[in-house]
Write a structure and sequence with these properties.
With 144 residues, this protein is α/β, with parallel strands linked by helices. The chain has seven helices and eight strands. The protein has one domain: 3-Layer(aba) Sandwich (Rossmann fold). The longest helix is centred in the middle third of the chain and has 12 residues.
Length: 144
């Protein structure tokens, strides 16, 4: 927020891109934790996760650079905020890995968020997701 305030007060025009959790080739932390049987989720909250495939993140940046009047800030996430547990279970099924386990301690203690972020403004700018949800994005990663 401090950086955004500095940018807003600056004579230089710019757009802040608020990226969700980036995944894709070379960014497989969640896949690795599920595959290794280390995936856990909090039991006291849905622990919403907002993700963006690496390629969509890069394309969103290019999209903003081409806008005549870019907004001051954009959330760069896919179209489907999803509970962390749902993503982990989906991956576990496809990886033939153990299902995620409930964690001891709550979401706050695990350091996971609990908000759903929307990409409506990004889409309104003309951007079209190649991977509109984690399902399409992770399926592409797992196919390689």
């Amino acid at each position: 927020m401090e950086a955004e305030a500095l940018l807003a007060a600056s004579p230089v025009r710019g757009t802040t891109l608020r990226l969700g959790g980036i995944y894709g080739p070379g960014r497989t932390f969640l896949i690795d934790s599920v595959r290794g049987g280390r995936a856990t989720y909090p039991t006291d909250a849905p622990a919403w996760t907002n993700r963006i495939h690496r390629d969509d993140a890069a394309r969103a940046m290019l999209n903003v650079l081409q806008l005549a009047e870019p907004p001051p800030a954009l959330c760069v996430v896919d179209r489907a905020p999803t509970a962390r547990r749902v993503v982990q279970e989906w991956l576990a099924e496809r990886l033939d890995a153990p299902p995620p386990q409930p964690a001891t301690g709550g979401a706050q203690r695990m350091g996971v968020g609990d908000k759903r972020v929307r990409s409506d403004a990004l889409v309104a700018s003309g951007f079209v997701h190649t991977y509109p949800s984690f399902r399409e994005g992770y399926a592409a990663v797992l196919a390689h």
